Amino acid sequence: MEKTFVMVKPDGVQRGLIGEIVSRFEKKGYQLVAAKLMTVSRELAEKHYAEHKEKPFFGELVDFITSGPVFAMVWQGQNVIAGARQMMGKTNPADAAPGTIRGDFGISVGMNIIHGSDSPESAEREINLWFGEQELITYDKTINKWIG
Ligand code: IDP
């Protein structure tokens, strides 16, 4: 079953949106297989955002993601990688549709509440970067047969 890495960024944690975000993913029917509240080292932040290393906003991005606790999660489900991205909305909250997490709660591109892996390759890389294998829990949810 497909898995993706999702993180409530420091602004989302400070604004009390962890519960709202977890609730949306649960209601959608995805299954939570790992979660932790944690502070992020610069080393981890730089690895996570390595693809943006040359961008002018890289320093700002690393400063922001290390500025307070984040809530890191792994969600599992059919097409969860693309589905999570749909639920998050566009990168810039100004362009994100109402009903999406960024559209409903975000204002600026720097503080856009949530991160989600953008492809199967990044999902695998990010899950392995943020979680140890023993942190991913395998369990049956009886509702799965109703989700299709
Ligand atoms: P994504 O988070 O929607 O996948 P990416 O293009 O991978 O978007 O960018 C990673 C993060 O970098 C974004 O979520 C956003 O917080 C930040 N970011 C992207 N573009 C800018 C910018 O132009 N200025 C400041 N921050 C930016």
UniProtKB/TrEMBL annotation:
GO cellular component assignments: cytoplasm
Xref: Pfam families: NDK
Subcellular location: Cytoplasm
Catalyzed reactions: a 2'-deoxyribonucleoside 5'-diphosphate + ATP = a 2'-deoxyribonucleoside 5'-triphosphate + ADP; a ribonucleoside 5'-diphosphate + ATP = a ribonucleoside 5'-triphosphate + ADP; dZDP + ATP = dZTP + ADP
Cofactor list: Mg(2+)
Role noted for this protein: (Microbial infection) Catalyzes the phosphorylation of dZDP to dZTP, when the bacterium is infected by a phage that produces the substrate for the synthesis of dZTP (2- amino-2'-deoxyadenosine 5'-triphosphate), which is then used by the phage as a DNA polymerase substrate.
PANTHER family associated with the record: NUCLEOSIDE DIPHOSPHATE KINASE (PTHR11349)
Family per record: Belongs to the NDK family.
Protein name, UniProt field: Nucleoside diphosphate kinase
